[in-house]
Amino acid sequence: GTAQISMGGGSPEVMEREAADLVAVLKTSSLPAPLKLESDSKVGPSLGRDAVDKAKLSFGLGILLVVIIMIGIYKWSGIIAVGAVVVNILLMMSVMAIFGATLTLPGIAAIVLTVGMAVDGNILIYERIRDELLLGKSVRGAVDLGFARAFSAILDGQLTTAAAGWVLLSYGSGPIKGFAVMLLVGIVTTLFSNIWVSRLFFDWYLTNKKGQMATISI
To answer: pTM for the whole thing?
Structure first.
């Protein structure tokens, strides 16, 4: 009815700590803790498949609404915005491919959020261009001032979102950290697509329309 457990070799401090841990485990397991079944459920692969399908559907609907709204409001300039958003998504996918990352549900959510941020940046630029045109500026001058004066607002918004993403990355775990990583990647690609890709499309369009004499649908 008696037994002795030897802790083996090592320093006295380590042996004492291991002995205390073993005593705690033995005392805990000896307590009467009967289990009572309250509910039982089985989770199969169909649940994850349904979640992914719904995420893809929401992503597709979001992109479709963005295309319809931007082209309906901004005409040709809306097409430029849609092209910049497509480049933005391709850049995000390229970054994932370079690092061998897997697209998960939080990643899809981050991409959808990134699309919204990219479109918001284009709207800021376009509304600024409209204001400059109403003030009598030429098309080339309005485009230059629109991009220049909207940059600070776009940068402030992206930095604020980046701060939130960094907090999630630092203190989150699992899906939250995956969402934060994709969000931070999306912020960088959004700034690139808003400031350089959209501007490149505008410069190409105005060059083909002979610069200062060009008209623009916005």
So the answer is: 0.68
Residue 141 host element (H or E): helix 139-171
The confidence score (pLDDT) of residue 62 equals 81
Burial 81-118 (b: 16+ CB within 10 A, else e): bbebbbbbbebbeebbeeeeeebbebbbbbbbbbbebb
The conformation of residue 194, written as its DSSP 8-state character, comes to I
Please say whether the beta carbons of 212 and 139 come within 8 A. yes
* Amino acid at residue number 184: L
Q: What's the rounded Cα separation, in Å, for the pair 148 and 91?
A: 23
CB atoms < 10 A from the CB of 47, how many?
10
The answer to whether 77 and 218 are in contact (CB under 8 A) is yes
> Strand, coil or helix: what is 100?
coil
- What one-character DSSP code corresponds to residue 37? -
CA quadruple 142, 84, 51, 97: dihedral, nearest 10 = -140
Q: Helix 175-192 and helix 139-171: axis angle, to 10°?
A: 160
- Grouped pLDDT means (10 residues each) for the chain, 218 residues: 70 81 73 69 66 78 86 86 89 87 80 87 89 86 88 89 90 83 90 88 80 62
With beta carbons less than 8 A apart as the criterion, state whether 77 and 152 touch.
no
DSSP assignment of 54-89 equals HHHHHHHHHHHHHHHHHHHHHHHHHHHHHHHHHHHH
